[in-house]
């Protein structure tokens, strides 16, 4: 374990990943200070104007909005859209800062839950073998028959919008990789002497899986988990982009990008005037995903030097 | 069986092959000299990592990155192989000098048929058609005593047994009637009974085409069966070089002595098997002086300071040791009482 | 080989049945009323309680689950997939009409990647050097971290917004007039680039191509990074193998060593990745087509999802799942074809 940590810190690319991740953690932790919420629900991005057109960076809060807050007695803690506003006057900067929390929430929760489900199914399948294995693996195949984004889109269309629905969709179609991975490792570990010995001693099945097999096979699953946090966040953002993800106005990077969709070309004669609507959210998503991928890539090298260079 | 009045077929002079790794330069082969005459078998013996395989790959010029031959000469039929162009070298490989590898499973290409792999060299070097080449490879398979050669030629390596694969490998190496065959641990991966068959086959074929063989192995049993002369290698250098009888009955290097007393023998009464203490030194950090000194039971202060030269103690017997006299006494005693 | 393929074909109906079952489970989360909405043409029918009840009975929407599944399956087999409000035509017609556009996009994305990507991967492995190694590694990770929708918007921003080179859509309006309205233009394949060539109309061909370039780049940039890297590392791995050395020891020339002895083996792991790549592209089709308003299946499905047209979305998922299953089958069979160890098992 020590060796792993040392390698993570001595490798240039994973070091970049760690620094990036650290910055994002800081942003997520201090979100209420960096971008103080203006309403009870901090994940609701405040609007800086009622105008549908995006407004450039430095745009001051419009008078009619200021009036509303004054009327409600809310103190306006900042009055400039540092990164501009998206379509409908939504403040991009606020969305980015609180969107960091959304990204962590999506990434960590979906990967953890999907990982647990996958490990559960995979280890049962591998340990008992026979018909249980055959049945569970065919079910896994069926779930794997859908392109991930398409499957998640179907489920969110049926369930309706909302971050919780997005996460459910990502989990329902996100556990299969872990199941296959852990099944493979357990199948090979099962033949090891220490498992044979435990079996011969009459140790209970559950205990063998829990005490002997999982600790020796879980590391690849964890690496896989790290690697897929990025793709989970991308898929959630893609759902928002397609208009079936987080509700309108929710602090979510995917939605910030989707706000840019209609404006990206710019007004006639002013090509590219709304560059900020895609650039800032784009940078946040890319860096966040990159951070996890860099760390995951190094972890995999450490895990299996033979895999070096394969994605 | 040294034929003094004859020019050697292959002469390796002061060969130096280094590996330029990230951790430093590994001197895998560091100044090796030997020669091979027509029709004879030279055995190169040593533990793994002593540089014996690297010597073979240097002769074939098949070193992988980051290995490089940095000095010396490899004179074959009067020409220095190291000075040949890549194209000229390609014409030597397979045609004049062929090679047999240790692990026939990995040395044969899994996606090509055995017949194709044998016929390839034939088509390459003799510019013959595919059909003729295939026919010839079936003949070769028959020659190496593979049953049903016609069917085998169409099969893939994984369909053959281990011994069968090595036979196919031999057929492949013999396909263009090479004058020199280099066999790198050809029997190590095989069962003992199959080992004997393969050795028999190699001996028969060698006699037939009067070719020379360099047999590389860590197994003195194999060497005892097949070699005429033997070079013992340790840490990239030859430590003893003599004919088979001398090596087995009057070795003068402590390492050779150690190797000999570590194998069970039927012709001598032995109380127990000897073990050479310690391990092969890390090639990045060879010891000062004689490289064998940390493991040697005859070690003196001089051994730790100064590296001995390979000196000719008698006609055709070269040893690299400061304490030849002591060893000679011990050998006499050891062999008499059986250690 | 035969046993292997037979097993794969026997599993095929089981997997497809499982896929339909899974979709039906998801579909059943909707109330009978909502499901009814996927079959009727005129939304106002839903306002009349009597006709709703009659229609629910007609389509067996309140049957118990197993019976409902069987009825639904029967309709699927008859290709009666319901009515797409989004496209204002039956779902099957909507699919048939949009399929060629998506096919054209996917084909043009996959074929160059596989042909050129593998070639580049092999080349870069043979001319092994550290700089290139690092560049490819970093490019692949960055490409992997750059979501399609961000990349696509950037492409649109630069090549259409600023440079005005690569417009969105599938054809310019003048070309549309010719392709869809003119009697001189015959649609043989419905792949416009190919039809244009068959009709001998170069300007239409160029126009279609101009509209295709940006979506192709967006859809395939990840695959390029991915395939190049895998081919390269697999090739590097293979070039170090004993049998490559054996081939050289026989005096085989370098070209044969690389393209016969090494490449055949190096391609075996690449096949898996190519399969994964095609799957990834199927997912990316929705986003790419949405960004470039390219009138294919993905654009339609994304619009349908936004408008909660669940019948269309479900049929789209069913279609793509089927494509994926077929794709996986092809991958598995090509595995067997290239690797005798699998073929002769």
TrEMBL record, chain A:
It is found in: Cell membrane. Residues 100-296 form the ABC transmembrane type-1 domain. This is Peptide ABC transporter permease. It is a multi-pass membrane protein. Belongs to the binding-protein-dependent transport system permease family. The keyword Transport applies. It comes from Candidatus Infernicultor aquiphilus. CDD domains: TM_PBP2.
TrEMBL record, chain C:
It comes from Candidatus Infernicultor aquiphilus. Residues 99-331 form the ABC transmembrane type-1 domain. It is a multi-pass membrane protein. Keywords: Cell membrane, Membrane, Transmembrane, Transmembrane helix, Transport. Pfam families: BPD_transp_1, BPD_transp_1_N. It is found in: Cell membrane. This is Peptide ABC transporter permease. One of its GO terms (cellular component) is plasma membrane. Coiled coil: none annotated. It comes from the Bacteria. GO terms for biological process: transmembrane transport. Belongs to the binding-protein-dependent transport system permease family. InterPro entries: BPD_transp_1_N, MetI-like, MetI-like_sf. The chain crosses the membrane at residues 9-30, 105-126, 138-163, 212-231, 266-294, 314-338.
């Amino acid at each position: 374990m020590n060796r792993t940590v040392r390698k993570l810190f001595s490798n240039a690319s994973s070091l970049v990943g760690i620094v990036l991740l650290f910055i994002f953690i800081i942003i997520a932790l201090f979100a209420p200070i960096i971008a103080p919420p203006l309403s009870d629900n901090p994940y609701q991005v405040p609007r800086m104007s009622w105008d549908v057109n995006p407004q450039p960076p430095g745009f001051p809060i419009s008078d009619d909005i200021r009036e509303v807050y004054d009327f409600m007695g809310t103190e306006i803690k900042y009055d400039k859209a540092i990164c501009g506003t998206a379509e409908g006057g939504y403040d991009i900067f606020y969305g980015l800062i609180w969107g960091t929390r959304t990204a962590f929430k999506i990434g960590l929760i979906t990967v953890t839950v999907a990982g647990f489900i996958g490990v559960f199914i995979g280890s049962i399948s591998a340990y008992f073998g026979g018909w249980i294995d055959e049945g569970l693996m065919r079910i896994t195949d069926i779930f794997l028959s859908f392109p991930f984004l398409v499957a998640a889109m179907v489920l969110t269309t049926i369930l309706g919008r909302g971050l919780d629905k997005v996460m459910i969709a990502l989990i329902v179609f996100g556990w299969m990789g872990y199941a296959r991975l852990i099944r493979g490792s357990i199948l090979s570990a099962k033949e090891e002497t220490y498992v044979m010995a435990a079996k011969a001693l009459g140790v209970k099945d559950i205990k063998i899986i829990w005490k002997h097999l999982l600790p020796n096979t879980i590391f690849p699953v964890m690496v896989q988990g790290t690697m897929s946090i990025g793709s989970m966040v991308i898929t959630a953002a893609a759902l928002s982009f397609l208009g079936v993800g987080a509700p309108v106005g929710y602090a979510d990077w995917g939605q910030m990008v989707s706000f840019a969709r209609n404006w990206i070309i710019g007004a006639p004669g002013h090509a590219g005037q709304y560059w900020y609507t895609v650039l800032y959210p784009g940078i946040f998503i890319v860096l966040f995903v990159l951070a996890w991928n860099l760390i995951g890539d190094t972890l995999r090298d450490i895990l299996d030097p033979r895999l070096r260079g394969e994605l | 069986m040294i034929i003094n009045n004859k020019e050697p077929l292959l002469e390796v002079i002061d060969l130096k092959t280094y590996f330029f790794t990230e951790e430093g330069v590994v001197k895998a082969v560091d100044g090796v000299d030997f020669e091979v005459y027509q029709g004879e078998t030279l055995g190169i013996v040593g533990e793994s990592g002593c540089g014996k395989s690297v010597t073979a790959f240097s002769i074939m010029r098949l070193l992988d990155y980051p290995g490089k031959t940095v000095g010396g000469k490899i004179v074959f039929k009067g020409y220095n192989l190291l000075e040949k162009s890549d194209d000229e070298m390609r014409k030597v490989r397979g045609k004049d000098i062929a090679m047999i590898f240790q692990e026939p499973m990995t040395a044969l290409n899994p996606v090509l048929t055995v017949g194709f792999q044998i016929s390839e060299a034939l088509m390459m070097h003799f510019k013959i058609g595919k059909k003729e080449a295939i026919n010839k490879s079936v003949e070769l398979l028959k020659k190496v005593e593979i049953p049903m050669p016609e069917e085998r030629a169409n099969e893939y390596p994984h369909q053959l047994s281990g011994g069968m694969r090595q036979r196919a490998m031999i057929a492949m190496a013999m396909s263009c009637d090479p004058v020199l065959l280099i066999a790198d641990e050809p029997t190590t991966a095989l069962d003992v009974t199959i080992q004997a068959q393969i050795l028999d086959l190699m001996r028969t074929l060698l006699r037939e085409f009067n070719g020379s063989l360099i047999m590389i192995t860590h197994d003195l049993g194999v060497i005892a069966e097949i070699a005429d002369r033997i070079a013992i290698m340790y840490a990239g250098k030859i430590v003893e070089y003599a004919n088979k009888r001398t090596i087995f009955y009057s070795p003068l290097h402590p390492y050779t002595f150690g190797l000999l007393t570590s194998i069970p023998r039927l012709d001598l009464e032995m109380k127990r098997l000897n073990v050479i203490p310690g391990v092969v030194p890390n090639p990045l950090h060879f010891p000062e002086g004689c490289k064998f000194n940390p493991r040697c039971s005859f070690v003196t202060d001089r051994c730790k300071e100064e590296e001995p030269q390979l000196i000719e103690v008698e006609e055709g017997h070269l040893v690299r040791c400061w304490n030849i006299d002591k060893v000679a006494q011990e050998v006499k005693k050891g062999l008499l009482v059986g250690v | 080989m035969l046993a292997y393929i037979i097993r794969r074909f026997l599993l095929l109906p089981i997997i497809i049945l499982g896929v339909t079952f899974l979709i039906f489970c998801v579909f059943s989360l909707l109330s009978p009323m909502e499901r009814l909405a996927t079959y009727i043409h005129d939304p106002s029918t839903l306002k009349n309680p009597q006709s709703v009840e009659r229609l629910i009975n007609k389509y067996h929407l309140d049957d118990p689950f197993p019976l409902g599944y069987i009825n639904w399956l029967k309709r699927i087999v008859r290709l009666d997939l319901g009515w797409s409000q989004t496209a204002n035509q039956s779902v099957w017609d909507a699919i048939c009409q949009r399929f060629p556009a998506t096919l054209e996009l996917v084909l043009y994305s996959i074929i160059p990647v596989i042909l050129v990507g593998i070639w580049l991967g092999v080349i870069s492995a043979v001319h092994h050097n550290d700089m290139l190694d690092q560049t490819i590694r970093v490019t692949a990770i960055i490409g992997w971290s750059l979501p399609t929708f961000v990349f696509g918007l950037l492409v649109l921003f630069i090549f259409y917004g600023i440079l005005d080179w690569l417009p969105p859509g599938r054809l310019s309006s003048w070309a549309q007039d010719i392709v869809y309205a003119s009697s001189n233009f015959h649609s043989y394949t419905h792949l416009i680039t190919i039809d244009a060539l068959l009709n001998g109309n170069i300007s239409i061909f160029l126009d279609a191509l101009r509209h295709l370039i940006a979506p192709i780049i967006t859809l395939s940039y990840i695959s390029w990074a991915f395939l190049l890297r895998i081919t390269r590392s697999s090739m590097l791995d293979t070039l170090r193998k004993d049998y490559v050395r054996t081939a050289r020891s026989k005096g085989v020339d370098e070209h044969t060593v690389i393209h016969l002895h090494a490449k055949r083996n190096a391609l075996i792991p690449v096949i898996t990745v190519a399969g994964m790549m095609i799957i990834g592209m199927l997912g990316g089709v929705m986003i790419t087509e949405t960004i470039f308003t390219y009138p294919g299946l993905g654009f339609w499905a994304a619009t349908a999802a936004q408008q909660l047209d669940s019948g269309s979305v479900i049929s789209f998922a069913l279609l793509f799942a089927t494509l994926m299953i077929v794709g996986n089958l092809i991958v598995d069979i090509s595995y067997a074809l290239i690797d005798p160890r699998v073929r002769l098992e």
